[in-house]
Amino acid sequence: MTYKRQPFLTANVDLFRNAIDVCKSRCGFELIAWVVMPDHFHLVIDPFDTHISTILQKIKMSFAALYRKRHGMHSGRVWQNRFWDHIIRSQDDMNRHIEYIHYNPVKHGFAGRPLDWPHSSFGEYVAQGFYPADWGEVVKPMNGEYGE
Hints:
With 148 residues, this protein is mainly alpha-helical. It has four helices and two strands.
């Protein structure tokens, strides 16, 4: 979560993706699913032998340094102190978390369907055949005029 829920992440998603790539090369983890929202992000990762808190600390520190440099900041908080994690216990649990992540932009009203949100792994999942392109699409109810 960004500091005071400031909505700057999607405008700087390139820096966030760069921070993840740098951390992946240093820590060695698998990024399974992701979404970047204006003021928070969700990741499903396999940390291999690295502790999850180390990975998230490095991602957040790397992003903060890149963000401060881009915006001419010498100091200032970028992130809230805490994060929430969950240990995936089964394939069903994994699937639920991946679906939650991909549906997050629709849930928060930023997109009509997950495929419309460019800042997530959903498009990759569609391209690989795991989901149809219209999965999670919000269907507007009829106004009662159809067929009358």
